[in-house]
Model the fold of this input.
Amino acid sequence: MPQIPIIMPQLGESIAEATIVNFSVQAGDTVEADQNVVEVETNKANLTVTSPCRGRVRQWLARVGESYPVGAVLGYLDATAEDAARVGLDTSGPAGAAAAADLNGKSEGGRPAQPPGVEPIVRGLPVPASAGGASYMSPRLKARMAELGLHAADLAGVAGSGAAGRVTVQDFERFVAGLETHRMTQASPMRVSVADAMRRSWTRPLASVGLPFCLDPILAHRKASHPKAAPTLYGLRALALALAENSAPAGRLVGQKIVHPKAIDIGWAVEVEDGVLVPVLRNADRFTLRELIPQYEALLEQARQRRLSPEATGGSIATVTNFGTFGLTWATPIPLPEQTLVLGMGAGRRVPHWSAEKHQFVPIMEANLTLSFDHRVLDGGAAGRLLTRVVHLLGHPERL
Amino acid sequence: MSVTYLEAIRAAQARALAEDPRVFIYGQDVGAFGGAFKATKNLAREFPGRVVDAPISEDAMVGLAVGAAIEGMRPIVEMQFADFSTAGFNQIVNQAATLFWRTEVPCPIVIRLPGGGTSGSGPFHSQSMESVYAHYPGLLVFTPATVEDAYSMLLEAVALDDPVIFCEHKLLYYHLKAERLPTEALPAGKARVTRPGRDLTIVAYSAMVHEALAAAAELQPEGWEIEVVDLRSVKPLDTDTVVASVARTGRLLCVGESWPWGGVTAEVLARVASEGFELLDAPPQRLNAKDTPIPFHPTLWAAHRPTARSIAAAARNLLRS
Amino acid sequence: MVQAAITTDVTPAEASFGALCRRAYRLMLLARIAEEKLAGLYRAGQIQGGVFLGRGQEALSVAAGLALRPGDVFAPLIRDAAGRLAFGEPLVDAVRTYLGSRLGPMRGRDGNVHRGRPREGYLPMISHLGAMISVVNGVLFARRLKGQSGSVGLACVGDGATSAGSFHEGLNQAAVERLPLVLVVANNQYAYSTPNSRQFACRDLTDKAAGYGVGCLSVDGTDLQACLRVLADAVGRARAGGGPQMVVARLLRLCGHGEHDDASYVDPQLRASALGRDCLKVAEQQLLQDGLAQPAELEAWRAEALSEVERTVAQVQHEPAPDPFQEEWRAIATEALVETHAAPPLPPRPGALKQA
Done:
């Protein structure tokens, strides 16, 4: 009776090995084809290994708690030649019989030991490493997705039934057909555009740092000013000055080059129906806060009416978003896909602040400032220093 | 009343001889003896002088046919075995296949090849020659899988103005039966979807169509619906029908009895990969005979060529990938 | 039309033989001069592929062509320029095929000696020696099936071709079917560089005829009058139902295998012997000796031949070459069955597509 090896399968892209958690069946048990026989753990998930064909478990070579590479023989099934052939297993060649080495390096039946093969094998058919796995999309799948205007992000919720968990076109068509049973409304062009920008931005490793700052100087300055600058403009002007001193944090990484900003053009997020627009103040480092007010107000109005010209948006090197206007104290916004930085301003709250002079808690208005950034370009230290500088500048609004 | 694949071939020849005075048959032992496989039984008697025994000279047989074609006749040359046609290879590929291209004079000859493996026939009585001849421009290559196609495609081959290599399969000669001869037919150049399906397309021709159908039957209880496409002619090859099938199923397995290197299966895969790349949900696969001469011993022979079992196994792999 | 120089005191048969000799000579002369011109064009780089001349073989070849009648079948080989002209091929067909004119009978698809007009019984050779014999057989066989009698088919081969399997099969087939085939074997002593001693082991090629059960005649290939008589004899026997007839001619190739070959391997003794005589000169002498032509006529004929060759070449040199973009790239007659998916499309003519 041919012995069919139970082999550690390809478990996912870049997974080279897994640890045995437990055996669902023991030596002597009869199993059907595709029945779960072993539970294994990778650094990403717990998975099950299934029986290659119908048969009786002859023995387990692997041990619970030990790790084995993809392709290693975990145990053997006794199966009839017919059952083996039924699932395409070749019982005549060395691959199908007892020629594979056991895991201690000793050979079965006196044949020389084979090194544990890491050749990806699924059900006896060698599958190229890239043609299986959750991230693999076949040409047909790609074509269908392009037809429907979908991206890999849209498939996040689809479990794949293909080799090593890939999403087959049948899985996809079932998913799409399933959507049809729900109520669906058309996303606005604004929504689709924001979705695309956020998806593209998210392809980078993003991180956030935050710092609370005292709002009182700004509140006092504002009270005494005519005309009054919006709080967002204070943040924008402070960021502009900080970047004028050192524009490196606003550089972009393209391949192995840092692309430096040409001008300190800074935009700010304006909420419009179903989305966000970002008007831009050009050369914000060269104009005082007061000088920027008319342009700010004009662009804000145009943004709200969705009458922004193309020259008024785009090309900025950083963005400011005042989520405090929504009452939020903390947020981690996502930078625009073409930018490295976004500065976030939260809502002010009255909080107790320890005064070393008075040796007691005193009430102050405090708000959080956050900086979300592309971590490929700068690290926490540089981000922290930029944020600290902005906080300092915001503490002296008369100099903005 | 039933008719075998071989009887259909004989009936087609009889009809061709009866309806067209330009037709004659030339081959070894075709006359009084009726041919090694009896494909011309009684025809020499029915059509005196038009079913002529040739000496063992495949080269001269084909050359004579070309000369006769130049003179306006429509000769049918019977090779005793497909494997022996290589003794006349030069005349087929350099004389018959080039005549029209070089001179604008058509060459309406049919060369009938009893081919394909049967148990115990060995390396020189089992070959499938379609891939070799299809490679040469100027030839048409027909590979009927059914009794009806054997009949209608042979009649069509005689009627066409171009040289047709008519690949008959010996395994089908006596064992494949139909109730009656057809009255209408698909033209050559059109493939047939013999079995519609949903999950995977098997493209096959000649005897392999029957193996593919058996494989499909084996997979049906497992929940798979396999579509089987019978090419009928490998040259011209009905790319449109094949691609349309792959559009339906997304998976392709092409099966052929000839050898792996550069044959019909390679041609089908190349066309689907280049014209239907985005229809494929999995890499296209093919199954051929092993890359060795055809063995004599029945046990070796049975493992040498694709069978329903090995086709089903290959299909399963493809369905799960 | 050739003027017959009739002298008195000859019988009608002799007179007509005399006219035949004159006609034959003029055709040989034209073939010789045309081939010299082709050799020159080849050396000037104006001809593609190989150029193979029939120098020394003109007498045999012209005799074969002249022995045939309209309606017969002729399958010449590479050294049969004279025979082709004799069978009725216009000189311009040959020149067009060599110079690659689109207007030639092969339209550029084949070239040089690979030319013919199959529907007129003039079969275009393929390179494989001996392969045309069974094709001639096929034409004759078909005519017999159709109830037509009276034609003869004539195939030319050299000593080398007698070693080819297709020669054996073709001759055997003709013999078994008792077809009216005349097989002319020009033994010019060399197949490329291979002498007879490395080509066959029988005493003489005529010995083979008995092995096939066919008739055989032998002839001095340098002697025009002998060739004319022997070929007429062979053709007559075949036409009368005598079955296949083999004619073996002895001569020497007076040029290289092709114009790329200097033939330095040819035995000088052969060259110096009677075998090495130039059949054109021999024919000339015969005409003069027998009073069938005057020296002045010979001069005039030469001048006419030169002029005809020059004129034809000049005309053809102005003709267009085949245009790959105009070509119908189709190898089968049945348009509906052409494969559209196998071959990639031809790239557009340079400059045909402008960027929009």
